Amino acid sequence: MTGANSFQVSGYGPERAGWTRLFARDSMARRLDWPMLLSAMALSMMGALLVYSATRNRTELNQGDQYYFLIRHVLNTGIGLALMIGTVWLGHRALRTAVPILYGLSVFLILLVLTPLGSTINGAHSWIKLPGGFSLQPSEFVKVTIILGMAMLLAARVDAGDKPYPDHRTVMQALGLATVPMLIVLLMPDLGSVMVMVVIVLGVLLASGASNRWVFGLIGAGTMGAIAVWQLGVLDDYQIARFAAFANPELDPAGVGYNTNQARIAIGSGGLSGAGLFHGSQTTGQFVPEQQTDFVFTVAGEELGFLGGGLIIVLLGVILWRACRIARETTELYGTIVAAGIVAWLAFQAFENVGMTLGIMPVTGLPLPFVSYGGSSMFAVWVAIGLLQSIRVQRPMSA
């Protein structure tokens, strides 16, 4: 089964070609990448336990309900799974036609953050408050739309057979598409998300077959841009202090360096097998700030030890390995670019999150994919899994 007929399931006519094709014996469900899917689900389940451990005693956060964050994390995971199923059902090719709408919506949402509707959490003015105590971080969804938008532009003429690789004009259009939301996010300022987006752009360009001059040029431009951002005072004082503490951990151990120092103590105390789930002294004593979100890996390091932390890294590695395989085996450039962009996104964000808890990367407030508490991040990464699964499902059966 190839092309348009790849969705036709034996015994099902067009009138039954909806959700049934997800579960028919020879259709989508059978062609899903189950190692990737099961790894992502295992990470989310581990995240639920780690988030619960980090928040069950924090009455100032959980409103007196020790299950408050656990329930919300499970709910976020459930919604994320639903979004993944919907993404697979619609297909990455159908979403390709909706990219202009999705891109416009994501830019509109991040612009809303700069209005009075936006709110500040942990120093970053990058959230929109919603009824019921929920918050939305639009920059998480911008990562998806940048990947889809750049892939649409870069692959259009190549997949049509007009060009063997994207020309310079097409690359400039794709870079312009990515630059607009990145500049808006930088104004929030949300430096961590901008760093991820830069890595995504580089990954997308490498996968597209564009000239290496663009990649080297962007690296040079990015370096000069970072210097300019520093010199022009675009960054807030707390962000500058974080980089200073990264360069010199002993600069202010009781102040801006406190988070990193406590994170390293927590991970170091876990040893090989950890103190046991719910028995970490650093976690129980509430010594590590933002432990359910940015520093959730410290809970794994302290309570599950090297083995537990290593398991998280292995599961993330399985997801990235399967995603690389999907990018390599798909027969269309659009699918290759989307998969490569997702790999760049998840790989860098995971490395940055784990690295900042170990003190080898600056603190930027990026969540650990699938594990950290946070609805926007959870929804975005599960949509990414849905896109990867769709690329695998819609490839020809012989691939």
Write structural notes for this entry.
- The protein is mostly helical.
- The protein is 66% helix and 3% strand.
- It is built from 18 helices and 3 strands.
- It has helices at residues 20-23, 28-31, 34-55, 59-62, 68-90, 92-97, 99-113, 138-159, 168-186, 191-208, 212-232, 237-247, 258-269, 281-284, 296-303, 305-329, 333-358, 375-393, and strands at residues 118-121, 124-129, 135-136.
- The protein has a 3-stranded antiparallel sheet.
- β2 (124-129) and β3 (135-136) form a beta hairpin.
- α8 (138-159) packs parallel to α10 (191-208), α15 crosses α16 and α17 runs antiparallel to α18 (375-393).
- The protein is globular and about 60 Å long.
Quick structural overview:
With 399 residues, the protein is mostly helical. Helices cover 66% and strands 3% of the residues. The chain contains 18 helices and three strands.
